[in-house]
């Protein structure tokens, strides 16, 4: 079944596998309820990882309609307490989730098997599932932020939620859940906003920050002025200073 949203197509598909082995440190498996993403971020690396043309990635979202059922079957074999990251190459809370609830249904299955979960999103819709997420013995929830400036946000993430809405959603989670901010990609204009981002993160009780550089790929439509000339040595020092001032652990790999 196809549906058009913002010139984008939804297609419901059936999958044979739910979990993928993860290469991310401390994460065993990745779970991606959708293939494709409605945010249409100009810096998205996912189509390059999955070897999908940008045009196709930005024109359709595949809805894995039977994912929760397949996930249940896989976890019966794998066992309990596995560590699963939701949203490694898509956003589990993109607008399609409001209708299909594939992420919500998958969370119920993961909870049933006592999994540990980590969810990264740009969407305030995650707050809808607060009661489910807070039932996990171990859960982490993160929001992705590259700027506080809405004009610049719209240039690189034209269909994502406003940053303030993301912070508000994250603030609704209790201390039962570890909260973090994924600060990335860091652009030249982000450098002048680091203080404000750390302040917002500290204000809502974030546990840590992950900082990531912009990793350019041929075909990404990001203005050169957004990423050229960044001194990563100086950036690292600035992040370390902010870490001390706000007593907020920062992890980065540049």
List keywords for this structure.
single chain; 254 residues; alpha/beta; pyruvate-formate lyase- activating enzyme; eight-stranded mixed sheet; four-stranded mixed sheet; 10 helices; globular
- CATH C-level class: Alpha Beta
Residue fraction in strands: 15-25%
- Weakly predicted, low-confidence segments: none
Number of helices: 10
Structural class: alpha/beta
Tell me what the CATH architecture is. Alpha-Beta Horseshoe
Task: Look at the structure and give the mean pLDDT.
Answer: 94
How far the N terminus sits from the C terminus, by CA atoms, comes to 43 Å
Q: How many beta-strand segments? A: 12
Report the helical percentage. Answer: 25-40%
Broad shape: globular
The gist of it:
The protein is an alpha/beta fold and 254 residues long. The chain has 10 helices and 12 strands. It has a single domain, classed as pyruvate-formate lyase- activating enzyme, CATH 3.80.30.
